[in-house]
Amino acid sequence: MRFSLVFLILILAKVVFAQPVGYYDNARNKTGNDLKDALHEIIKGHVEFPYTSSSTDVWDILKLTDRDPSDTTLVELIYSGALVNGAQEYNSGSGWTREHVWAKSRGNFGTSAGPGTDVHAIRPCYNSINSSRNNRAFNNCSSCNNVQYLGSNTGSFTDSNVWTFEPRDEMKGDVARMIFYMATRYEQEDGVDLELDDTIRSNIDQSPFHSVLTTLLIWNKLDKVSAKEKRRNNIIYDEFQKNRNPYIDHPELADYIFGNLKSVKWMAQTYVPDDNFENELIKQGYDAVLDDSVTTANINTVINLDVNSLNISDLTGIEDFTTLTRLDCEQNKLVTLDLSQNTALNYLDIDANALTALDLSSNIALTFFEGADNQLTSLDLSLNAALTEFYCENNQLTSLDFRNGSNTLVVDFSTIGNPNLTCINVDDAAYSKANWTNIDAQTSFNEDCSSVVGIKQYTSSKTLIKTFNIMGRETTFKPNTLLINVYDDGSAEKVFTKHAKE
Length: 502
Hints:
Elements lengths: L4 H9 L18 H12 L14 H8 L1 E2 L2 E6 L6 E3 L10 E5 L21 E5 H7 L3 E2 L5 E6 L2 E8 L4 E3 L2 H17 L9 E2 L12 E2 L2 H10 L4 H14 L5 H4 L3 H5 L11 E3 L3 H9 L9 E3 L8 E3 L19 E3 L18 E3 L18 E3 L7 E3 L8 E3 L7 E3 L10 E3 L8 E3 L3 H7 L8 E3 L17 E6 L12 E6 L4 E5 L6
């Protein structure tokens, strides 16, 4: 029930989160039940964890899968969206509980290993809301009662007339995809054969059926896969159960297995949730119907892709452009961009988006990078030895590591307009200073910017323009304090003050 601090840090630091190549290969070109059976074979036999234990258990896993990215001590509750302290767990009923989205009484499997402890379909929940949901079927309410959390409406509802529960809009697709997963993962061989239909059953019915299927299929389309869902799926696969939820990786599978495409062969599809992105792929001839998916075989041989100025906010799907060498996606509304699968990429233009972070460690073939007018705070280019042109103007960089062993190959370099960038890590500070002149006045080059104190000291004539403390924050003079003075020639020096400023 408790993680060691070291183990927790290792998991939080892990960044290799991606759908494994070929994971769904054995399900391709199959239809209906054959497709469902193939997926079952892929995801069955997962690593099981106990419901409650002194070792790693369901409590511990949920603290990671459902933690708040901005405060990792908190977990998000599924039907309310409230954030609560994860460490408290149940806390005599005043903490949080573990909600079986596929109600454990629907099949009467309880908390037994397997369906009862499968965290793909267990989420943190407030105790009283867990009781309100009970084992109700999922459906849109007609006679709606607000479900409240600490006196406030949550956006979730029970129905006064029928035994149903409607989750808040942000969770409707999540719920549907968890239910689809359970109906695919657990067959007769697993001790309980879970199935879906449209029948709303009473609270005392323990048959292994859940509903309402028709509504769940609609929710799957309306509430698209979120970054939180993908992150959760990856953590469960990478760190714990070693299996994935296929309906998060490929939401369209629901229609092929439970919907109106049962007689159609499932070709490997790429999930493309952004309509503006998919419309452009249709325009370029890679897709035909706006349905959040593109046949992977149509895009995995594309070499150049231009999707400039299209109001795109999500480039999910770009990961299956595995042979892409050039990507132009400037002047959109991107806040995240995953290029970990685009290992052939050598030209990247992401100008004028809203990116705050970017991982280019997998893009070792990259020769050209244009990233101006974003909100990037740090870049690590230590693995990008092929770079010859680098432009990253007008960002919020505080850290830039350019020590890739090939700095002398760079013919153009610019970081103008990064007011918080005081030091750039390079292979040879003297070379960079002589050849890379498009930097701000406060910026200098150094072979080691591991701390502000490590900035090279200069003693030539200059004018003080700013003073920083050792945390890199601008400050004023303080006695008996280690400070960093930045001068108008771009140099900096450390000083230890001994008395009040005269």
